[in-house]
Structure formats: structure tokens, C-alpha cells
Amino acid sequence: MDIRNETGPFGQFAPKGIVARLLDATRKAAPTWAGRRLGFLFRKLAIRQLHGRPLDVETFGARMRLYPYNNVSEKRVLFTPQFFDAEERSLLLSRLNEDFVFIDIGANIGAYSLFVAANAKGRCRVLSIEPQPDIFERLIYNIRQNDFPSVKALECAVTDNDGEITLFIDKQNRGETSVRVVSAEGGRSAIRVPARTLMTLVREEGYDHIDAIKLDVEGAEDLILEPFLRVAPDSLWPKLIIMEHLHQRWTVDLPKLLEDNGYVVVQRTRNNAAWLREG
Questions:
Q1: Residue 275 backbone phi and psi in degrees, to 5
Q2: Does the pLDDT value for residue 122 go beyond 80?
Q3: How much is the pTM?
Q4: Which of 36, 141, 224, 269 has the most CB atoms within 10 Å of its CB?
């Protein structure tokens, strides 16, 4: 299904009628097996009623326009935000301080970025990075619907060299798009996108510290972190790293690299691991 990004005023696609009732039911679903099954059923029924339209909602304290098609993360944030990386978000919330710097790599439509910005204290800075052009348009739209001056968005991939790189887009689930070919299946297409190293971005933004970084790059985490830890002063190393544990796709032993540099695992969920380095 090809979905056009809608750029009209927020509220144009407010939930109404049966869709509003189904949306409310999914967001109230209990965190039990039965509750999740019922929530997913209501979600399926609501999507059938939408016929390709987005919905304008408030989620994580931020206004977002969300399209529950071919993007699993977007679908989860819309219908069941209570189940969307709840432990990871709780950990981030516990780390917020007056001068928090957060980098969101593979930001998608901005769920993590906007969550941090909505709960920010003091002079929080959020750098939200997404390489897919049409998903980046959605990210920018969502940022602009909120009075969060702390959020800046960049349209690029983050990898081990500056320049350009091929991005393999998964048309069935845009959240599985990657600079690495994960599978030949699923109707992937390839485009060229700008690429920057994490060190380049940190220098350009003038950061003197990074409190937390989230990476959702479908197996390319090593291309980002290994070069950065090799060249960056340890004063710039992120205190907290949240990323998918996709060790089978990495070309280096990333967990060992992190452990050797003083990081310890403080949280492990179904999809992600959180690494903390104090001092």
C-alpha cells in the first residue's frame, strides 16, 4: 500500500466514531496475553476502517500524525503506546537531568525523540536522525506540531564514513530499513542517501557530552559505535546506550567492545539492551 504523507493542519484526521472507540479500547488494553490479543484485534478492525488515512493523536505527551501501514513501530505507537518500549522509556525518564543530550539514530517518526522532549528539564537537546525521505517528512511534521525547541532533525544515515551510502528500504515494514541487506525478501528497494559518522555529527552540533543515545538501525550498530569509540575522547562517550541486540549481523563483537570500555548491561528486554557507563 502506497501512502501519501498528509501535511494539512493537525486535527484534520482526529479519531471519530467507531475508529475513536476502537483506538480507545486498544490504548486501554491490559498488559496480559488476553489483553494484548484483544488490543491487536481492535487494532486490525480500526485499520480496516481507516482505508489508508492517518490519525492525529497525542502520545507520550506529544502530538503526532501516525500512519499504521507498513511500519510496525508507527502502528504500535498509535494503537498500543503502553506496550511500546515501556521499560526503555522508563529508564530514559530516570536519567533526565537539567542539561540532557539525547541522540536518536533511526528515529523513525520520532517516538523516542518526542518522548524525551516532552519530559525534558532545563536545556535538554535532542538530535533526531532518520534517513528515509518519506519517513523523515513524517518526523518533521510531528516535531512541528509541538512546542519543543530542544528537538533538531537531520535527514541522513549514520555509519562509518561521511559521504553517501545505499539504504535498503523494507516496503513491508519501514522500521526494518537498513544500510545492510538483512534479507532479499520483503520487496526491498535501494536508494542513495547522505551518510555521516557519529563523530562528525557530534562535532557539528558542538556537544561536550552525550547523556543517552538510542540506535535502531537494523544491524548496523557496529558501523556507528566502533569508529566512534575508537576516535572520540571518552568525555564524549554516551553514558547510556539503548540498542537492539542483533549480534548475528555485526562484524565486530560489540558487547565485548562495550564491556572493555567500561559499559555494563543494566536492562535487557525482548528487543533491546541498555548499556550504562558511569564516571
A1: -115, 135
A2: no
A3: 0.93
A4: 224
